[in-house]
Amino acid sequence: xxxxxxxxxxxxxxxxxxxxxxxxxxxxxxxxxxxxxxxxxxxxxxxxxxxxxxxxxxxxxxxxxxxxxxxxxxxxxxxxxxxxxxxxxxxxxxxxxxxxxxxxxxxxxxxxxxxxxxxxxxxxxxxxxxxxxxxxxxxxxxxxxxxxxxxxxxxxxxxxxxxxxxxxxxxxxxxxxxxxxxxxxxxxxxxxxxxxxxxxxxxxxxxxxxxxxxxxxxxxxxxxxxxxxxxxxxxxxxxxxxxxxxxxxxxxxxxxxxxxxxxxxxxxxxxxxxxxxxxxxxxxxxxxxxxxxxxxxxxxxxxxxxxxxxxxxxxxxxxxxxxxxxxxxxxxxxxxxxxxxxxxxxxxxxxxxxxxxxxxxxxxxxxxxxxxxxxxxxxxxxxxxxxxxxxxxxxxxxxxxxxxxxxxxxxxxxxxxxxxxxxxxxxxxxxxxxxxxxxx
Length: 440
Description:
This protein is of the alpha/beta class.
């Protein structure tokens, strides 16, 4: 899950201000679910002459092809996929703020990002969707919901923050079990370092993944209401919980438990280092495994790469759905196209879902639709961790500040942990205020 540079964040903030209509993020027409649920057409009903547009990021452009081709063949509809250039989220927000809307779009289904689109005014409610009861129970309400209304359809397994490790490195150093807590993982890292192995690899040159090390340390606090307290202003990034996590991260770096080139290393460097065994462990999200899949086949990945979730008290994963995991349907003002958009979602997650997962070689979200052969075991383990997972900052906070940029500045030496926390809190408060959050 890549993040945008500061200039793009400022564009996003401006777009958010426009989208929130001055102060109330719930401004706009009431959701149809307040009176009666929207009708869900039969997935294969005829749609001759109807054209639907889907906005996609550069890494999602080819994702719909197999299922939309099948939908078009079954219904007669035309489906056009339009690529919105990176930074995708900022581009979409800017377009929507000017009144430009597609019928559907790939979108990060978290509370902060649904708020950023002013979901109540701009998105169709998806309550009562016919596929919801067919999803694995632990996934039905894990994401896509804002203010008790469902606005996003989960189509693939949500991304998870956790630890990818090289099985061969573990075996060569007599490690027979994966760590059972964050503290155990750190102690394992120290033992590996003493044997001349690089325990952890970080990519501060590309910056965006630096936040995962802090967020996995917050999993227990998140389960205990951390982000509710942050959202209400009762706690801040400068208070003990988050500041201590930032300090711990810096302490581990200062201790030499990371790669020597941490300040300049990139995402690509990280993947190569883990796959080759130059490093033992990486804290990352699902997109990292996508890079590994581009470098090795399933057999090699199953042989070399494993995954385990991590948290202070145990093996609790932190879920962080990204734009490739979900779709939203827009209120366009055209009732026929809005119904057709719902029909496409019903087809995608209904009779077309097996076609979709087979084409994408991805884990199925439906117990009655088998996961295709060829999905690496590590990805299955990532998916299995979702049942006990807790939401990330992106999932549970009302705003998504530049924690990762500030942490990267800490790694390069320009910010202290206290300055990271202060800068992040300042921006969070600004974004929360723009979103109309009470107390800001």
